[in-house]
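so my prof wants the structure for this chain in the tokens format not the other one, which i didnt know existed until like an hour ago. anyway here's the sequence
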Amino acid sequence: MKKTMNVSNRVTEQLAIDYPIIEGGMAHIGDGRLAAAVTNGGGLGQVAASGFSPRRFREQIDIASCQYKRLARC
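here's what i got, hopefully its the right format
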């Protein structure tokens, strides 16, 4: 049986997330797949902008959007 922890505080309420976990914007590592994984896990994922060209940054946003289970617009 899997236990789940119910976490509710100002951070989770203001950001509409399940857990107070916020992914840092790690350059070159914080891509769309990681952002979607963190968000799908109940935290706040974000795509890093540093080090990406505008085209590559847009691609990573599209990847995150496709893999985000509540949005999945692909």
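also thought this was worth mentioning. The helical segments are 10-15, 32-40, 54-67.
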